[in-house]
Task: inverse folding
């Protein structure tokens, strides 16, 4: 119900968010050669963050010309965006669902925050990481849970460090409509909270992507798809660092440790 001037801003924001999400969804599944889990990651984040999600997609992930996605997404800051997108898509979905349920039930804020944390971490780890990434990571589901537990734990804490204060401050303000899931203001608070969570989680995910603890943006060109057409392949960067034909991801061994082990190895006589 529109009763305050801010409600008009919220209506405009959500209309832009809907248009942005529709474009990202259309372009991802028609023009962008990357794994399905990342396609849905950008769609969900754009749904939550509106035009800001669209901006991130265009600047960091959208293939500018056929066959150039590998090189275009190679920069570390873009890999950090991809890592954060995957984190936020999973964690924020769990947090928002928990917030809507606990607000409907009228639970205290302290209980609300605990349940949101548990739901966000569980959705991010058990579904978005271990389940949706299983094909790319290989191994069993339980092995993937073990491998991704620490990176997900770090990402989730960074995400919640940005999101929880914003949600708590705005929900406990003068306008109690922020506590009601049927009101626009509630979803406006959720959107602002996700944006704050993304900002805090981004540098952490850049660090983890640099050290190989988390994946960033990836390229997937399945045989027979439009992304393996002669036009796309003629422009494709085929260097080992850029090629994205294989989408399996495993944590990268620390190069510093490799250097140290080589230094300690005895020289041949």
Result:
């Amino acid at each position: 119900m529109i009763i305050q001037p801010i409600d008009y801003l919220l209506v405009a924001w959500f209309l832009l968010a809907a248009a942005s999400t529709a474009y990202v969804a259309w372009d991802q599944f028609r023009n962008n050669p990357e794994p399905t889990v990342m396609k849905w990651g950008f769609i969900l984040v754009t749904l939550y963050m509106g035009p800001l999600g669209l901006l991130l997609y265009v600047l960091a992930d959208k293939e500018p010309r056929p066959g150039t996605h590998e090189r275009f997404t190679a920069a570390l800051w873009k890999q950090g965006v991809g890592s954060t997108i995957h984190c936020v898509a999973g964690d924020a979905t769990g947090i928002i669902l928990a917030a809507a349920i606990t607000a409907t039930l009228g639970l205290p804020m302290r209980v609300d925050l605990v349940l949101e944390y548990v739901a966000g971490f569980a959705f991010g780890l058990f579904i978005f990481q271990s389940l949706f990434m299983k094909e790319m990571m290989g191994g069993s589901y339980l092995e993937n849970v073990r491998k991704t537990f620490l990176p997900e734990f770090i990402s989730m804490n960074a995400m919640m460090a940005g999101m929880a204060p914003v949600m708590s401050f705005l929900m406990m303000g003068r306008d109690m409509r922020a506590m009601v899931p049927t009101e626009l203001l509630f979803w406006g608070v959720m959107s602002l909270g996700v944006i704050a969570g993304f900002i805090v989680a981004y540098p952490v995910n850049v660090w983890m992507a640099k050290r190989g603890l988390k994946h960033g943006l990836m390229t997937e060109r399945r045989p027979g798809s439009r992304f393996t057409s002669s036009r796309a392949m003629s422009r494709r960067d085929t260097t080992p660092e850029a090629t994205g034909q294989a989408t399996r991801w495993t944590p990268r061994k620390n190069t510093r440790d490799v250097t140290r082990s080589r230094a300690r190895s005895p020289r041949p006589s």
